[in-house]
Design a protein that fits this description.
Blueprint lengths: L3 E4 L1 H13 L3 H17 L6 E3 L3 E6 L2 E8 L4 E9 L1
Parallel strand pairs: 1-5
Antiparallel strand pairs: 2-3, 3-4, 4-5
C-alpha cells in the first residue's frame, strides 16, 4: 500500500522558485518526480533521520525535509532547497 505525498504550500513555492532560477529545469522536474515516487513507495527507507521526527532526502539538484505520518499513510514535504 502506498503513501500519499503532500507538499506544503511553502514547499511548493520553494520548488517553483528553484525551478524558475535553475539552469536545468528538466533536472529539477525529474528530481521532484523521483522524490514523489520514492516517498509514495517507501518513505521510511529514503533519506536520513533528523531530530523532531523529520527526515532529509537528497536528489540532485534538490534537498527536501519531510515527515511521515504512518497512521494516515501520508508523507508531508515541508521544505525544499537546492542541493
Amino acid at each position: 500500500m502506498s503513501f500519499h505525498v503532500r507538499w506544503t504550500r511553502k514547499a511548493r513555492n520553494q520548488l517553483a522558485d528553484i525551478w524558475l532560477s535553475h539552469p536545468d529545469r528538466v533536472g529539477v522536474t525529474a528530481a521532484a518526480h523521483r522524490i514523489d515516487t520514492l516517498l509514495a513507495r517507501d518513505p521510511e527507507n529514503q533519506g536520513e533521520s533528523r531530530p523532531r521526527n523529520r527526515r532529509i532526502m537528497f536528489d540532485s539538484p534538490l534537498v527536501i525535509i519531510y515527515r511521515i505520518d504512518a497512521v494516515n499513510r501520508q508523507v508531508v514535504v515541508n521544505n525544499v532547497r537546492q542541493f
